Amino acid sequence: MSALKEKTKMDFNLILQGKGGVGKSYSASLLAQYLLTKSQPLISVDTDPNNSTLYSIKALKAKFLTLFDENERIDERNFDALMELAMSNTDKNFIIDNGATSFLPLIEYIKENDVFQMLSENFNVYLHVPVTGGQAQDDTLNGLQQLINAYANNVKFIVWINEYYGKIQDTQNNTFENMEVYTKNKKSITAVLHLHAQNEKTFGRDIEEMTKAKLTFAEINDHPNFALMTKQRLKIYQKDVFEQLALIF
Predict the structure, then answer these.
(1) Which residue spans of the chain are classified as CATH 3.40.50.300?
(2) How far apart are CA 193 and CA 245, in angstroms?
(3) Could you tell me if 197 and 164 are in contact, meaning their C-beta atoms sit under 8 angstroms apart?
(4) How far is 56 from 46, CA to CA, in rounded Å?
(5) Which of 12, 15, 83, 132 could form a disulfide with 22 if both were Cys (CB 3.0 to 4.6 A apart)?
(6) DSSP strand E in the chain: where?
(7) Whose CA is closest to 96, among 16, 34, 158?
(8) CATH superfamily of 10-197
(9) 85 vs 12: CA distance, rounded Å
């Protein structure tokens, strides 16, 4: 599969999912690291007030944008600031990491203001949706379907299959690509990325330690406190993820 974007435009990447704790920020950080290795101009924005993971990874130089007022209520005017930032920097790629708390208000804002139509005049607009196994599987699949129903004609969907909590499969043991949510929406889904389940004692532990330390792959590679085989396993994992992203961006 070759790169799918229009070469004349930069990319606007919005990571959305109504369920919390399913890997939105993690997916955003992987995408940011990949784009930075390509030396592409990038602005990353973290809007999650409860779990500002992307902002906390200092090497990514993400901005933090609060969407709440002093009474901890969503202030739609703060979404305006995000659009002003994007439309005044159409020569840069964007990654927007949005938290579950502001999921519904942002969806309403996008609809009310026809945001994707405005952005698509200057960007290739990608909506990244994590889907995870385990107890959150049904919620994340429903969230994906909700977003496709609302925006199938406006954006390119990228699904991140996150196996951290288990395999994604239905009662007939069908994997995601054989489920109805994929087969009936295949034309709307540009790509499916797989964050494969890892051996929790080796790869899994290494990824967890990197995440807790708020470091990037590049920083780990040069870090004196990480062992040789930890660095080797993270190189293997990075290569797998980045090769998948290279087919799209």
Answers:
(1) 10-197
(2) 8
(3) yes
(4) 9
(5) 132
(6) 10-15, 42-46, 63-64, 93-97, 123-132, 156-162, 189-195
(7) 16
(8) P-loop containing nucleotide triphosphate hydrolases (3.40.50.300)
(9) 12
